[in-house]
Every structure is written in structure tokens, then in C-alpha cells.
Design goal:
Chain A contains 4 helices and 17 strands. Chain A has about 300 residues and is α+β, with helices and mostly antiparallel strands.
Chain lengths: ~300, ~300
């Protein structure tokens, strides 16, 4: 399988253009040399296309962590619930939010509210690959099912972490008042205080910059003050509902692969000429599992 | 002193508009009830106005941490070195960068390169107020001279941390190849791996959203591919060089004040109806020292 584009570029150095003599494999080298088996095709049944005037944003859903919310969001998408709704909020260094602010649209087979899925007990079949570095918020952090996640080994509890690009289901004060009719994506410093307080449902794997560069709302909490400021959503579509040749064939690096372990080493130690004091550490939100477009089969 | 605007809004909850019954003083209450002595006027001699088509961005410089760079940047500003230069790079979830990409402009009394000021040995007169929570990257983190900072108590070494809105001096491979002719501001997840690898010179205290919402560059590392995409800088001005009535009278909450301690408690424990599992922790980059506009004297 040949690779034609790499979408998720990890944080790169503040070079002003001069060449950098590599002393260890570069990130690009690591990815270019990776075996095809270290990558997984995104499941079109758990991939959403959010299309709006700014282009397409692609979201990978996380059924392992939020099965009921994922099922509900797909039911809502299939009922065309989101089509014609708007992006209603862009709060700098925090979130972009979209959905049914007036709670008036028909839900089809979907539901407006669901029992929260903030965390779950890890099972034998769940894989959790921890990072060795301390975390401010959780006893352990790492990657699970391709997503950044945290774990409390004392209770075998695991949950997704609010990193840049993660997508969650907004709610009111009641823990069970969310469900996916209102969704948000993180566009700033990871608001980890939200972990286990909101149900995270997936992450943006392509096009986050189409959301993060939107005009900030000037109302309270970054809401757009007037209806004309809102940005209409053309449609949210489950990729599986499109003919194969209309899907974007994305694949993600397996977070349990040797290649991803090499990526983490690269990001932790930065063995190149530019870095003088390599951190030797990495925050779970400072390394994004790479996603790329594969040639169509 | 009456307060008319609060600029730096800390991360707020994902409410969809309903009221929230407070069980503990809210952040707004804490700030509204704070004594005037807990605030400090920004020193106009260490305040920069970056004016461009998108409006004004205000930067507080950090002479405690980077005295030579701060002096040099002011000399460059006073030589009108920056006026007419451009924003040349906007990399999503990373940095906005501006300056003299072609290294051709006259420097006045300024210099193009300086010895790095990545960290310094803390002195008796430096105050460092640590956070109690663990940090991924440093032995201790907290606030010093109003800025987010880290410390290694084993060597009494202290340095500024790459949080959202922090401003640094881009450099090439040589540690001493920066100086302030190229500057960047962080607009994404804190790239803490840069700590002690680049000289940080201050932080954006007003208008970061004017930078963070700019169109992303489509070239390598987020550089704009063509000259017309670049965004011209009208001028960078030292506030002290303007008549008093043309300055923006900003004040920052002292990070060694009782009010800021209350802000930190509020952010760590979030005792309100919305949060179900308060983190009880805070990342040094997840709380921004509040800055507000005071009435003119």
C-alpha cells in the first residue's frame, strides 16, 4: 500500500528554514519505513464527515469508550438531524461547538439525552499502552483503541482525555443530559479538567484546522451573538453510507505498534541538532497518533 | 479603581446556556471581590503593542527571565525594525511566527542574534510560587514574576514554560542564533518540549485570538507559501513611547496574591453543580493569570 499524504503532522521545531542534520531517524523516516501492518484502516461505520462551507472535517468515533453515544450520533446523522444546523460557538483556546441550540429538530431514531459514558472498567480485551511519564491529572495515561486515554489502575477505570481535536457531547448540569445532539471539538490547551465530566465520543483525524481557525464568538463563552454569525453545517454523514469511491481512505498508525513506539521515542528525546535540552518526556496530549491517506484499493 | 473589562477568561464549562447554582465563589466573584492591591499595572516600558490589519495584540515582556532579549526587542521596535514586516507562519496547534524572514532589514541599535536565555539561576529576590500538582516535564511548576514557569530545585534553575499565548524568539540550530528578530506565539497545546530550547520573552495578555484564528499556512511547518498570503505588521510599539492617553491601561492579577491563590483553588476543585468529578489538579498551562483593563487614572 502506497502512502500519498500524511495528515497529522506532529509538533515540529521552530526552524527558519535551514537544514537539520539528523542524528537519529526523523519522524518522517520512521513513518516512511513503517510496515503496512502497523496501520489500520479507519472503519467507515465509525467515521463521520462533517461538511460545511469551510470544507470537510473527518471524525473517528470511539465506540470502545462511548458505545451508546456513538450509536446515537450515527442514528442522528442518518436521520439528517445535523444537516442544516450550525456551528454556534468558537471559544478561543477551548472549544468549537455545533448542534441544535434550540432543541427543536426531530431526532429520527436518535435520542436527545443518554446516560453518561464518562469512563468504563477496562476489560481483558481492552489494550492500554501507557506512557512512562508522569501526568498532572491521572495516575496513568497512554493510548487505547487508537485514542489518548487515562487509567486509574486502582479501579481498572479508563477514560478518554480531552486533547486537542477530541470531540465530545455537550451537556447541561445533569450528568445524563448529553447525548450527541450538541457536539464540541477541543481547539486549545487540553482542558483535562473536563475528563470524566463529559462523554468524549471520538477525535478529529482530518481538518481540525478548518474548525480551529474559525472566527471567535464574541458572546459569553464564545457563543456567536447573532444568528447570522453562525456557520451552517451542510451535513454530517457516516462514511459507510457513501459509495466506496466517495469515501476518503484514511488509515491510522496503530498505537500498539512498534512504529508508534518509535514515534513516541522520537517525540520524547528529539535527538537532532536543534534540540539542546531534550525533554525526555511527553504529554499524552502532545503526540497525535498519525493518520494518513492511503491509495484507494 | 473600577474595573471595566476582564480580558483573560479562564476555561469555562461546556454549558448550553442554563444557569449554574454556585456552591462556592465563582471565578467572577473572586475577581470582582479582589482588593486593588492584588493587581499590578503592567509596566509600559515592558509592554508591546503589535498592530496589524487584524487589530492589536498586547504582549507583556519578561525582563526577569530574558533581560538581554527584552532589551534587544525594544531596541528593534524603537528602530522600527518590525514595522512593515509580516506574519509568515501559522501552524495549527503550534505557533504563529512573524519577523524578518529574509534577514535584510536594518537593525538600528538592535542585534540579530544574542546569547540564549533559556533559563537562569533563581536568586533570593525571585519569587516562585509552585503548584502542588505533578507536572509531566519539570520537577516543579508554578508562577514567577507573573508568568508560568518551571524550576529544578536541585540546581535552583528556573525557566518560562511554553503555554498558550507565550511569546518566544525563533532561532536556527545554534542555541545563540535567536535574538528577537523572529518572534512566535504559541496557539495550541503547550509545546513544552521547547522549554529551555528557545528563549521565551513574554506572553500575549490581550488579543491572542487575533493571532490564533488566522488562516493556517499550507507550506511546510505552516509557513505561508506565497508572499501575498503573508499578513503585514503595521508596527510594534513600546507602550511607554506613546502618550499616556494612548496607552491601554492593563493590570494583571499578582500571581503571589491571595486572590490568585483563590483562582487556583477554584480552577483545581471546580465546586459547582456542573462538575461531577473535579480534577483537584491543574496544569500550569491551564490557568492564565487574569489581565483586565482598569479605568484610566
Amino acid at each position: 500500500m502506497r502512502v500519498i499524504t500524511i495528515f497529522a503532522i506532529l509538533g515540529l521545531s521552530l526552524m527558519s528554514g535551514r537544514s537539520m542534520g539528523a542524528q537519529a531517524p526523523s519522524l518522517a523516516d520512521i513513518l516512511a519505513g513503517s510496515p503496512a501492518t502497523d496501520w489500520r484502516r479507519l472503519d467507515p461505520e465509525n467515521t463521520l464527515y462533517l461538511d460545511f462551507v469551510g470544507g470537510r472535517v473527518i471524525i473517528e468515533l470511539a465506540p470502545t469508550f462511548a458505545p451508546a453515544h456513538v450509536a446515537n450520533i450515527k442514528a442522528l446523522a442518518r436521520a439528517h438531524f445535523y444537516d442544516g444546523l450550525s456551528i454556534v460557538r468558537v471559544q478561543d483556546n477551548y472549544v468549537v461547538q455545533w448542534g441544535d441550540a434550540e432543541a427543536k429538530r426531530p431526532l429520527g431514531n436518535g435520542r436527545r439525552t443518554l446516560k453518561a459514558e464518562f469512563s468504563h472498567t477496562i476489560t481483558r480485551s481492552d489494550r492500554f499502552d501507557p506512557l512512562p511519564d508522569p501526568d498532572t491529572y491521572a495516575p496513568a495515561v497512554g493510548f487505547s483503541a487508537g485514542f489518548p486515554a487515562a487509567m486509574d489502575p486502582a479501579h481498572w477505570e479508563t477514560w478518554l482525555t480531552h486533547c486537542y481535536g477530541m470531540v465530545g457531547a455537550g451537556r447541561d448540569n445533569d450528568a445524563d443530559s448529553g447525548g450527541g445532539a450538541e457536539l464540541y471539538a477541543v481547539i486549545g490547551q487540553a482542558p483535562r479538567q473536563l475528563d470524566r465530566n463529559v462523554t468524549l465520543v471520538g477525535r478529529v483525524v482530518k481538518g481540525i484546522e478548518r474548525l480551529s481557525a474559525l472566527p471567535r464568538g464574541t458572546g459569553d463563552l464564545g457563543f456567536y451573538k447573532t444568528a447570522p454569525e453562525r456557520i451552517p453545517i451542510r451535513a454530517i454523514t457516516v462514511a459507510a453510507d457513501l459509495p466506496v469511491d466517495q469515501r476518503v481512505p484514511l488509515e491510522a498508525l496503530r498505537t500498539d505498534s512498534a512504529t508508534f513506539a518509535a514515534v513516541l521515542r522520537n517525540r520524547r528525546f528529539r535527538k537532532d541538532d536543534w534540540y539542546k535540552v531534550p525533554a525526555g518526556r511527553i504529554d499524552v496530549c502532545n503526540v497525535t497518533p498519525p493518520v494518513r491517506e492511503a491509495l484507494r484499493p
